[in-house]
Amino acid sequence: MRKEEKAQIIESIAAQIQETPNFYITDISGLNAEQTSKLRRDCYEKGIKLAVVKNTLLHKVLTDMGNAEVESLFPILEGPTAVMYASTPNAPAKLIKKYADDGAEKPALKGAYVQECAFVGADKLGELCNIKSREELIGDIIGLLQSPARNVVSALQSAGGKLAGIVKTLSERE
């Protein structure tokens, strides 16, 4: 590979990480053409971009980021590597878990960089599946804020009915 081609690939990887900062480093080696095609289709449906990369070029991009958290991913850059880029932080984890639940050994999680935190090892898959997206967190907060307001409105409505009944009864006695 020529130096110009390497520079172009490095720029492409860096631009993709800039665009979608959540990425998963996986191993998809050993998948046949049909399995790879199915994985790519599933990724596309979930809004995940799958790319096979050379470890040295990915290492260069991660080094250029100058982030100490990202540097913890360097040891896993061995063997065949595919990167899953996603704007939804837990989408690739859920997809990998779905394949694992179906009995497939690949794709196998090597590590991930999600919401500015590095996760190393396949044992982190459960944690990554439980990460909530920004929209899910906002929904949870709105639900928490609405709950007390609903209770107050409900209490006022039920008390209002009782008060109206009491006022009506008192006015009828006169």
Order of SSEs: HEHEHHEHEEHH
- CATH superfamily of the largest domain, by name, is Ribosomal protein L10, N-terminal RNA-binding domain
Structural class, judged by helices and strands? alpha+beta
Instruction: Give the helix level as a range of percent.
Output: 55-70%
Question: Radius of gyration, Cα only, in angstroms?
Answer: 26 Å
Looking at CATH, which topology of the largest domain would you report?
A: Alpha-Beta Plaits
Number of domains: 2
Extended strand count: 5
Please describe what this structure looks like:
It contains seven helices and five strands; from the N terminus they run H-E-H-E-H-H-E-H-E-E-H-H. With 174 residues, the chain is of the alpha+beta class. It has a five-stranded antiparallel beta sheet. A hairpin with a 2-residue loop joins strand 4 (108-114) and strand 5. Helix 1 packs across helix 3 (55-65).
